[in-house]
Amino acid sequence: MIRLICVVGYSFDVNQVPAHGVIQNLINGGAVLVGIACLAGLLISVAAWAIGSRAGNLGAAEFGRSGVVVALGAGLLLGLAPYLVNWAISTGQGVGTGC
Questions:
Q1: What is the pLDDT of residue 97?
Q2: HSE-CB of 60 using CA atoms within 13 angstroms
Q3: Which residues lie closer than 8 Å to 74 by C-beta, 6 or more apart?
Q4: CA distances in angstroms from 54 to 12, 47, 49, 50, 69, listed in the order given
Q5: Domain-wise residue ranges, the chain
Q6: Cα–Cα dist 33/57, whole Å
Q7: Do 77 and 68 form a contact (C-beta atoms < 8 A)?
């Protein structure tokens, strides 16, 4: 029978990370920029969808429709990202408690 021994361990301690505040500010700033890009993409896509539908240009309408879906999906992922990462970390820590 093979028995695994847990030798490696870690704990999340933000005080041990050098320049934690700077890194957190960069992540927050990047999230704001991505949110603005999602909003701009949504507005452009809605305009292309509306103008293409009104003018009878099916290519522009389809481009706008798919752009709306992509922009909304990206915004949804941007908002859910911290929760998904925290869920994955807590799930992984729950699995590793058998040692």
A1: 56
A2: 13
A3: 34, 38, 41
A4: 54, 10, 8, 6, 19
A5: 34-92
A6: 31
A7: no
- Look at the block and give the residue holding tokens 């301690």: 13
In the chain, how long is the greatest CA-to-CA distance? 73
pLDDT at position 25, please? Answer: 94
**Structural tokens at position 51:** 């103008």
Asked whether the beta carbons of 64 and 52 are under 8 A apart, the reply is yes
In whole angstroms, how far apart are CA 19 and each of 22, 49, 67? 5, 45, 37
Length of the chain equals 99
Distance (Å, rounded) from C-alpha 47 to C-alpha 96?
50
The pLDDT tens digits along the chain (99 residues) read 566 666 666 777 778 888 888 999 999 999 999 999 999 999 999 999 999 999 999 999 999 999 999 999 999 999 999 999 989 888 877 776 555
